Q: What sequence folds into this?
């Protein structure tokens, strides 16, 4: 299967690989997927508490090139967005941007799930209730 | 001078040896006759070429030329061998014993026969990929007509104890079929010494052309017959109708002859390269060899690199190195290799595996380059892997409540 140039670029030069201090109150961490499924994404956001803006985002991903590219792209998109804006990132936007083929759509869903899991972790840490999301059910 | 890309997927198919191509060429345009045309020189030439190739093929496996049935390849051979026995020996019984790591051409053939009333026992394999002979013995029944166990596995290269297996089958009055696709031409296979009654194999795994293979069918002690699965002109002693693929058969014969005369020298060289590759890659932390270390084909190694995903790993170098992975991230099922899972490997290790198949044409330079590329990519991806970070922090990954998708 041929990968798109954008997937290859993110794979070769991933953006924002790394780890934020998950003990900090303004850092939200999302860990989604499972080793036996062949995909695990950990996505973290650091939020400016006064403005609600995401000032930093980092990821680490175990998975195929499309999973790595989806999470790399997601961290790029998150930076500078408010938490509310980040909630609107839809997996199909990732699919379009990276030209993912149908068998790789689950990678984009995983990235969206990781964003939402990170936001919920941040919310719970700051005394807000966790949001409920619809299952995308692609896996 | 290193020429890229490098081909290390020789269990999938091998390049054709130029000497094989040379032997085939006249049979396309000049000696193009139908080997079944008995009344003119074109037919006689073709028949003579097929007879010669039949001798070459037979000689490689210690058989008689009359015992070679030409087919389109190993999948057809697996189908004809197993279905043909099931039909021919229906009055003796309906039980067939096979194992879980067989190629799909055998497993799906058995599943098909189950629908037609066959009883199939799928033996498990041990962690090293070998079947347990005591379990085979215990599975034998008065109704067992066939034991179908592969000679060597396509994913991990593990070589089954065929002599012991055939002895057990014989003792219980069953026939022994083996899928010899990966073994023939690579290691000594002798149908007499190994006690093989029926064996499927193919040219394109041994530097011959695609689209041609053979089924060995024993003629003495016992005389074995298989029911034809394709009706027609009664070619190949009535067991496989269809005009013979003369150029393909000529190429197959030549490929067999080259394997027979050069196997020893090829193996001595290839095994050194394989061991160099394997030893270097096993130096990487948390990398594991899959399958038995000794009962194995000399040109194959299968290694799991824990905490990195196989397809992601391949992407690091697959423009330059052709390999295959046990990961199934590209398949709709997302299921990793059933062979690796049959060894008891967790899905995580199965997803992290790479299969290397070397060939007659593999060079040391290529192996050195491969070692460097794979090592670098594994290390790079581990820096990116949350599982590696957790492992390094001493977190037991089995204790994590994963969000399953």
A:
């Amino acid at each position: 299967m041929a990968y798109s140039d954008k997937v290859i670029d993110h794979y070769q030069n991933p953006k924002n690989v790394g780890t934020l201090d998950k003990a900090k109150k303004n850092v939200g961490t999302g860990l989604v997927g499972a080793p036996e499924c062949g995909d695990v994404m950990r996505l973290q956001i650091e939020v400016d508490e006064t403005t609600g803006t995401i000032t930093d985002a980092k990821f680490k991903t175990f998975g195929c090139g499309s999973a790595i590219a989806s999470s790399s792209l997601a961290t790029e998109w998150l930076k500078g967005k408010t938490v509310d804006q980040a909630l609107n990132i839809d997996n199909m936007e990732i699919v379009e941007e990276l030209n993912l083929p149908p068998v790789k759509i689950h990678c984009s869903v995983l990235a969206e799930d990781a964003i939402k899991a990170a936001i919920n972790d941040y919310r719970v840490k700051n005394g807000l209730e966790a949001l409920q999301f619809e299952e995308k059910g692609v896996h | 001078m290193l020429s890229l890309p490098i081909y290390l997927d020789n269990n999938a198919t091998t390049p054709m040896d130029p000497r094989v191509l040379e032997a085939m060429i006249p049979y396309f345009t000049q000696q193009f006759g139908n080997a079944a045309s008995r009344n003119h020189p074109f037919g006689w030439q073709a028949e003579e070429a097929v007879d010669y190739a039949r001798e070459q093929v037979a000689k490689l496996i210690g058989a008689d030329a009359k015992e070679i049935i030409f087919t389109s390849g190993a999948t057809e051979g697996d189908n004809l061998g197993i279905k043909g026995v099931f039909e021919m020996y229906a009055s003796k019984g309906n039980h067939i014993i096979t194992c879980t790591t067989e190629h799909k051409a055998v497993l799906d053939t058995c599943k098909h026969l189950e629908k037609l009333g066959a009883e199939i026992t799928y033996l498990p394999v041990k962690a090293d990929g070998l079947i347990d002979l005591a379990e085979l013995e215990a599975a034998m029944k008065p109704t067992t007509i066939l034991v179908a166990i592969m000679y060597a596995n396509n994913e991990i290269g593990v070589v089954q104890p065929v002599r012991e297996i055939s002895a057990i089958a014989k003792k219980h009055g069953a026939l022994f079929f083996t899928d010899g696709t990966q073994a023939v031409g690579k290691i000594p296979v002798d149908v007499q010494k190994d006690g093989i009654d029926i064996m499927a194999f193919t040219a394109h795994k041994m530097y011959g052309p695609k689209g041609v293979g053979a089924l060995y069918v024993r003629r003495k002690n016992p005389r074995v017959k298989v029911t034809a699965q394709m009706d027609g002109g009664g070619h190949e002693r009535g067991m496989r109708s269809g005009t013979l693929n003369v150029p393909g058969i000529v190429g197959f014969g030549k490929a067999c002859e080259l394997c027979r005369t050069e196997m020893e020298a090829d193996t001595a060289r290839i095994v050194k390269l394989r061991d160099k590759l394997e030893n270097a890659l096993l130096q990487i932390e948390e990398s594991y060899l899959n399958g038995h270390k000794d009962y194995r084909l000399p040109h194959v190694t299968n290694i799991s690199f824990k905490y990195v995903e196989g397809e992601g790993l391949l992407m690091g170098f697959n423009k330059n190195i052709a390999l295959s992975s046990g990961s199934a991230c590209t398949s709709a099922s997302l299921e990793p290799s059933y062979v690796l899972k049959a060894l008891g490997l967790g899905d995580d290790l199965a997803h992290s595996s790479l299969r290397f198949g070397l060939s007659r044409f593999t060079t040391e330079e290529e192996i050195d380059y491969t070692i460097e590329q794979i090592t670098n990519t594994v290390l790079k991806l581990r820096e990116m892997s949350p599982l590696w970070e957790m492992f390094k922090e001493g977190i037991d990954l089995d204790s994590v409540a994963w969000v399953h998708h």
